[in-house]
Amino acid sequence: MTGGTVRGRVIGGDLLPKVGARVVLGSLETTTVGNGAYAFFGLRPGQRSAKAIDPDTGLESPTKSGTLVDGEELVLPDL
After folding, report:
1. Phi and psi based region of residue 55 (left: phi greater than 0; alpha: psi -120 to 50; beta: remaining)
2. Are the C-beta atoms of residues 48 and 6 closer than 8 Å to each other?
3. d(Cα 59, Cα 27) in Å, to the nearest integer?
4. Which of 64, 72, 63 is nearest to 44 (CA)?
5. Who's near 10: CB < 8 A, 6+ residues apart?
6. pLDDT at 27
7. Using an 8 Å Cβ cutoff, are 7 and 37 in contact?
8. Over the stretch 56-72, which tens digit does the pLDDT of each residue have?
9. Is the model's pLDDT at 1 over the cut of 80?
10. Distance (Å, rounded) from C-alpha 25 to C-alpha 64?
């Protein structure tokens, strides 16, 4: 097994990339960079769901999901 990657970006209510948003993928967590992008690497295949948490308001985005295949990349719709 090689592991796969889940990536995407977080867009704010103003339709601009959200910098510093927390993104939660199961028990994993990361923070978005300057263009609102995030990525999780080396993941086992299977169903994956992510949500973002706005650093300014604490509001959570709707969850976005997809199926990760070993050795491939899953790009989730904007959070």
Report:
1. alpha
2. yes
3. 19
4. 72
5. 17, 18, 21, 23, 32, 36, 38, 52, 61, 78, 79
6. 96
7. yes
8. 899 999 999 999 999 99
9. no
10. 10
